[in-house]
């Protein structure tokens, strides 16, 4: 076992089998409505899957693939950072959002690191799980900061030092990163150039020693931009021009009217993603002629750069969260209909929802037979939507026989599961099913989980329409915000007891 901390070791009965028995997978549901796929048929499929599995995958869900891909790339970059950078946004007792690498599930440590973000920023939840405490707290997302070196650079730039190239760092952008390394001595401007005869900005990456053309560039608004004539193949320091690519004179490239630095260095604009790396041989001059960049899907196959940017992850996240929210409402309506309720029956619980997204990274593990990426658990929210990469590892406990079944990755699909809240609302017509994540020794894995959670003040209880004399309420009402605050808190203070569970509110039969 070498130097692996024993906190990761699962009890014998919970260790995963490394040979996975191929089994019938969870249902794959096409969300598109057509002549051959009526809404009634779809609702029935959703109902059956929720009842029999508690899990299903969806395709034709309406979320643009680029949105998900951008966030996945930003997530890879986030986790590829030095630990010291990630720890700067680590969650703590006050703010449970952010980076965390020592999570426990059922008191055993998970082989993973996570980055939690609230969909609504800020998100309001109770300050404490104590019933007597009426205090509320705002959860605020923690975004990666600019590295301090870059901050120093930005200040320098503001004070007009930008053209003293030898002291500069690059604001480099093919993957909208700020490069944190000193420019090699003698290299002339690493700053981005803007070409009118091609789509995109030209940026010199001093690490890869490549000139890149990209439209995926983070611009620091209110700062001067230094541009290079598009036609030149060799440019001297004096040719570097100051220009604002967003100003109306941007097309008249080479405008020498300087953009006056303004206050505020935090505000950033990101353009469309089109990445087209180009080889170049930088030496004492910057610009090599480039072939025009082509439109196309952003590539995520490039090596992940160990830098990340506040801008990139934030923009990618916020775009993705909007799409996830739309999909979550759609699924909620389908679930509502499948329970025989009006489509909007559950929406009122979500007008100020407390949904949380989690970016997961499961590094390769030397003891995949003894540890788990996430130990067996049920999800506490209402509906959970998960994007997994192509590595695989999620296992669902099959209701029919309790066997762990692998959820095989389906490109572009989302995995959906019914959480505890839907189990309670549906008075157990649907069940929140146990699942876990296996890790492996060869490939790291990434996933992104969106947990659709109601407003903090919602009292969760079986819906009255679903209660009858023969089928009385199986749960007492509980306050979602308090439940949530309890879960969040107990992640920090493990007292050797289990997290709060809906079973604590179960009405036991006499
Ligand atoms: O990464 C996965 O596949 C699932 C993670 C999960 O179940 C969770 O974070 O609750
Ligand atoms: Fe889960």
Automatic annotation (TrEMBL):
GO molecular function: metal ion binding; oxidoreductase activity, acting on paired donors, with incorporation or reduction of molecular oxygen
Residue ranges of domain Fe2OG dioxygenase in the record: 352-454
Superkingdom, taxonomy of origin: Eukaryota
Protein name in the entry: Fe2OG dioxygenase domain-containing protein
Family matches, as SUPFAM superfamilies: Clavaminate synthase-like
Stretch list, region Disordered: 273-308
InterPro entries reported in the protein's UniProt record: DIOX_N, IPNS-like_FE2OG_OXY, IPNS-like_sf, Iron_ascorbate_oxido_reductase, Oxoglu/Fe-dep_dioxygenase_dom, SH3_retrovirus
Biased composition (Polar residues): 281-296
Keywords (A to Z) from UniProt: Iron, Metal-binding
Stored Pfam families: 2OG-FeII_Oxy, DIOX_N, SH3_retrovirus
Chain ranges passing through the membrane: none
Higher taxonomy: Eukaryota, Viridiplantae, Streptophyta, Embryophyta, Tracheophyta
